[in-house]
Amino acid sequence: MRLTGLLMALLALIAAPVAAEAPARLIPLERQLSALAESNPGNVGIAALDLRSGELVSVEGDTPFPMASTVKVAIAALYLAQVEAGRRSLDDTIRGRSANSLMEAMMIHSDNRATDILLANLGGPHRVHQWLHDNGISGLRVDRTIAQLLGDRRDLNDVRDSSTPRAMVNLLKKIDSGSLINRGSRSYLLSLMARCQTGKNRMRALLPGGTRVEHKTGTLNGLTTDVGFITMPDGRRLAVALFARSGSNRPATLAQAARVIYDGFVRMVTGPFGGGFGTPVAAR
Question: Could you list the residue range(s) of the whole structural domain that residue 77 is in?
Answer without folding.
Answer: 2-270
